[in-house]
Amino acid sequence: MRQSRRHLLQLFALNPLLAVPSARAGYNIWNNEFTFTRDEIQAAVLTRFPVTARYAQVMSIRLANPVVSMDAANNRLRTRLDARVENPMLGAPIDGRLSVTNGLRYDAARRAVLLDRPGVEAVDVPGLSPIYAQQLNSAASVLASEVLRDYAVHTFKPEELAVGGRRVEPTDITVEAEGLKVALAFR
């Protein structure tokens, strides 16, 4: 019993991330996982916005104020964005919302958890004619792909990928109700 307790204390001394409370990202020694809270993912996504893109020299779309939520049932992140569409044919700018879903993947070369396979789930722009709504949906899909594909929501520091002097490699990424769980395997 004393030897087990001493071994645990040595692990904590070797890697201070093991003692990080679950309220923020950290390594969980008991199940060999790294976790991130929804708030940490939200903060990472916030740094990417606002963004504005122009399409066909006619339409301008500004995306801002992302709100991230977890879609555990589909293992995806959802991001709701405020959208402002400007087009000379529309007259005044039109405001609405865009909802995008993203998968997640680990990129070993970048040591990062990346957003993957973004897809526009819904475009809600009240008062926009169906013809413009279809164009906006197409433009929004391109913009979401440009802005969110391969965007890093966390880049691991070298010390986060070492436990007790051994290297670990992220494997499965699971979206949970309150955050992300990244399984780690010893190499």
What does this structure look like?
This is DUF1439 domain-containing protein. By secondary structure, the chain is of the alpha+beta class. The chain has a domain at 37-156: Uncharacterised protein PF07273 family, DUF1439 (Bactericidal permeability-increasing protein, domain 1, Super Roll), CATH 3.15.10.40. Helix content is 22%, strand content 48%. The protein has 3 helices and 11 strands, in the order αββαβββββαββββ. The protein has helices at residues 2-14, 38-46, 130-148, and strands at 26-28, 33-37, 51-55, 59-71, 76-86, 94-107, 112-124, 152-155, 162-163, 166-176, 179-186. Strands 3-4-5-6-7-8 form a 6-stranded antiparallel β-sheet. A 5-stranded antiparallel β-sheet has the order 1-2-11-10-9. A hairpin with a 7-residue loop joins strand 5 and strand 6. The longest helix has 19 residues, at 130-148.
